[in-house]
Amino acid sequence: MSAFDDLMVFQRDTMALAQVAGRLGWDQETMMPRGAADQRSDEMAAMEKVLHARRTDPRMAEWLAAIDDKGLDAVGQAQMRHIRKSYARAMKVPADLAVEIAKVTSKAQGQWAQARADEDVAAFLPVLEKVVGLKRREGEALADGGDVYDAMIDDYEPEMTAAELGAMFGAMRPRLVALREAVLAAEAPKAVEGHFPADKQMALTAKLATTFGYDLHHGRIDKAVHPFSSGSGHDVRITTRTSELDPFNCIYSTIHEVGHACYEQNIDDAYLLTPLGGGVSMGVHESQSRIYENQLGRSQAFTGWLFGQMKDAFGDFGIAEAEEFYRSVNRVHEGYIRTEADEVQYNLHIMLRFDLERALMQGDLDVYDLEAAWNDRFAADFGYAVDKPSNGCLQDVHWSVGLFGYFPTYSLGNVYAGCLYQALRGAVPGLDGQLAAGDLAPATGWLRDNLQTHGGLYEPAEVVERASGIAPGPEPLLDYLEAKFAGIYRL
């Protein structure tokens, strides 16, 4: 066998073990007994120790030195691009640090969930301080003298920088704020009213998941404190959550996670358990979850079909007709929770987190000042005070598990989704009629064929540009938002 063949055999085993580690994480958030937290942290640390050893195995250096990338086809070259980058990253992070991060974040996740339930920020801050310290050390190792936060962003969106993201957010903010002000000055649509039993919500979301193309033969839907998607290839799982007073929480969390899951399920099987067998970046991943959730799932055409499904499931819920339901689904409203935010205000939530976590990683914000900083910034950005920690700095799981640099990819995903939706509308004739009939296959099929199937074959911006025909930028998203909400609010 050639050095490349040997390397790929070794790589497949490493990635299979990484999938096993991911399954431990899924179990921890869904089914693990609460008393197993300490043992699970040891198990996660042991898995990370094995994985780090494989990623830095001396044979990796020998294989990489022996392979001439120019002699490979396009797929082989893309595999090598990912493997070389992953190897360089692993070599910069000491094994004991990688293991400690895995152990501490596993414990921190459970402590965050309990603190959130108890509305007790003080109980969470000591372990968050440990996580921040460990991640800062990791960032310093990866940055190698450069910007620590840029190194963290690169884990989720390769080649992206905080400066680029900050400039993009700066360009987006004025139009978003102006749109919000105009919308909030207009008459608000009616909200849904009633009791929505959790079991009926779960039955409806299972139907919605398959309607959007999720393959339950290779997946499953469970509940978690914070919805997420896990896995790749032939085992891709999602979670959601229910509120018996707010069915949209469950419905749109499910559709969002289905977008992530379908991306992973639709990647070419030839890439299974290789570096190309997963989504190329979190920004591109979020483009799929956000376009499923918003441009498709909250469209007037699709909500007309969903209105009938809601009536069948729940009976009368205070909305008389489909037009009113569409406006209710897209109601711009005061709220604290990012995952429940309307499209107009969602990116403002991300900008808040981006600035705070950047300050944490650069040492400009102390962990013990985080709650006050969050509350001050939220009041300044949204015009009202945070009422409790679970609606403030304890609402997201990301920081407890060390996902610093992840948050800005949500807004980047919205930007990518804007570009993709503009192309999708031009490429799929009769789209609105299909959505109105509950037929998502043409839309999701276009996304599958033009983006999802490629997995990690292309760079993030490249795969979006190949699919959409334009270089990624925020204008299509902002144009879409302004047109949509001007219509809903009759501006």
From TrEMBL:
Its EC number is 3.4.17.19. GO terms for molecular function: metal ion binding; metallocarboxypeptidase activity. It catalyses: Release of a C-terminal amino acid with broad specificity, except for -Pro. Pfam families: Peptidase_M32. Zn(2+) binds at H256, H260, E286. Keywords: Carboxypeptidase, Hydrolase, Metal-binding, Metalloprotease, Protease, Zinc. The active site is at E257 (proton donor/acceptor). Its cofactor is Zn(2+). Broad specificity carboxypetidase that releases amino acids sequentially from the C-terminus, including neutral, aromatic, polar and basic residues. Belongs to the peptidase M32 family. This is Metal-dependent carboxypeptidase. It comes from Thalassovita mangrovi.
